[in-house]
Write a structure and sequence with these properties.
By secondary structure, the protein is an alpha/beta fold. It is built from four helices and six strands, in the order βββαβαβαβα.
């Protein structure tokens, strides 16, 4: 079920699988720091509201590179929702843009003590198989 959509990001929630899925659009290239943070605040609000066990982030078309300042902000402001919601698995379908893919990995690795597992994949099918395996 679609729960949010902007020009940059579509978010779906599947109650039966407890998967909250983010699909980034190519227009994310137009985002500035404030706009990117606003998109992630919506993501955070939906994590709090739906309490998913699994997160799937399809960043193949994401064109926003996450600079270190935002990486730190993400760990302190957004990751807290993952923990309080009881997220167990977090899967990424990696960006086609190498700098974006690396910046996402750096952001996640900032919080190496996270109480959930994170993996990176080349396609959505592999990511779903992994997050459902448990």
């Amino acid at each position: 079920m679609e729960v949010s959509r902007t020009n940059y990001l579509k978010i779906d929630f599947d109650e039966s699988t407890k998967i909250l899925k983010a699909l980034w659009y190519p227009a994310s290239d137009d985002l500035d720091i404030v706009g990117f943070k606003n998109e992630l605040y919506k993501w955070k609000d939906l994590i709090i509201a739906h309490r998913p066990e699994r997160l799937l982030v399809d960043s193949r078309k994401m064109n926003f590179t996450i600079i270190p300042e935002i990486q730190d902000w993400f760990v302190t402001d957004i990751f807290t929702a993952y923990i309080s919601a009881g997220v167990k698995r977090n899967a990424f379908v990696e960006s086609e843009t190498v700098f974006t893919a690396i910046s996402i990995q750096q952001t996640i690795e900032e919080n190496i003590n996270a109480p959930f597992e994170t993996m990176y994949f080349d396609n959505e099918e592999e990511a779903i198989k992994w997050i459902m395996d448990k």
